[in-house]
Amino acid sequence: MTKSKNQKKQRDSSVRGSTKISKKAAKGSAKKNAAKTTQVVAKPAAKGGKKAGLSAMQEQMKRRLEGGKFRMLNEQLYTTTGVEAFEEFQAEPELFDTYHEGFREMAEKWPLNPLDTFINYVKAHPKAVVADFGCGDARLAASVPNTVHSFDLVSRNPSVTACNIANVPLENESVDVAVYCLALMGTTLVEYLLEGRRVLKPNGVMKIAEVKSRMETPSLGIPGFVKKVTDLGFDLKHKDESNKMFVTFEFVKTKRSPKANVQIEMKACEYKRR
Fold first, then answer.
1. Biased composition, Basic residues: where in the chain (predicted)?
2. What are the residues facing 208 on neighbouring strands?
3. How many alpha carbons lie under 13 Å from residue 157 in its C-beta half-sphere?
4. Neighbours of 185 (CB within 10 A)
5. Right CATH number for 112-253 from 3.40.50.2300, 3.40.50.150, 3.90.1150.10, 3.30.565.10?
6. Where are the domains of the chain?
């Protein structure tokens, strides 16, 4: 009887031990499965920053659509007034992002960005107060120690004031340098330049960079552009045509009053399909 009881205890103990082992094994198996699941969820994103699931063809189509939007907005900006452009972009600020994303992609391919030339100029005059008309992402302000007032149609940066650049919130004769880097877009160019003249101190400097081809019209040309700006009360101090794509100007504000009815019309800058 005693022997039978001992055998039963051994069997029960064996069963309990087996149950413990089974539970432990199951628990370990569950951990392994959980680890596998975690590994799948935490799988790194595809290289190159592409969205998962997009094929090469889909990526190409996406780029073409974005390029089409950029060209459409570019054409719109060249054919509207400053007031119209400001109202349109304020109503749909995402258009500003689309435009500047396309612009940055273009600028990355340029052998020289004229803004870098202006940044170097401002750095050489650390006490100068600067107004950056059509500043984009305000790279000039971020690159220099100077006081820089940055203006554009939309503010995506705390240092940028959103406005029509023909009407900026600055006092008369309050800045030393006015910068227009590829910013003379639209049909109200004279208004933009006169606003720069208003805020410039006597003998203040106006820096302009533009695409050369925009001035290749029978009624303008680079000499014609210089004459028009001179009529607005400036003198040309320096001109650089050495770059294949761009021309830069340095004008100085004079005591002469601007002439009436000055008009400046330049060609729209057309970008090739990306």
1. 21-34
2. 180, 249
3. 17
4. 24
5. 3.40.50.150
6. 112-253
The whole-number pLDDT of residue 95 equals 85
pTM: 0.73
Amino acid letter for position 92: E
Cβ atoms of residues 114 and 136 within 8 Å: no
118: closest CA among 182, 179, 159?
179
Q: Alpha carbon 149 to chain centroid distance?
A: 17
- Look at residue 212 in the predicted model and tell me its pLDDT: 92
